[in-house]
Amino acid sequence: MNQLQFIALIAERDALRYTPAGMPIVNAVLQHRSQQMEAGIARLSEFEISAVAAGEISGRFSQAPLAGMYQFTGFLNKKNRNSKSLVFHIIDFSAVPDSSI
User: Fold this and answer.
1) Which ranges of the sequence are coiled-coil (predicted)?
2) pTM of the model
């Protein structure tokens, strides 16, 4: 199974564009910060991740306020066929109440 869910803010977002096949797509960078328990010890978890919203969700994602906090659901995949870099593909997202990241 390849499913990832986390809360993050939209740090950067490109303009909505269309692939040569006509699919709407938006690239972005998401930032996450939280405390996680590992082996009974609190650990700070921080990361930035490249993300992409494609298809129907791209329109809603392109209108979401920057720096807003959202719960994202999606999966990881290679950036392209020959890449070793990962990109988070956004399947769904929803606003979360104010909280610090």
Assistant:
1) none
2) 0.90
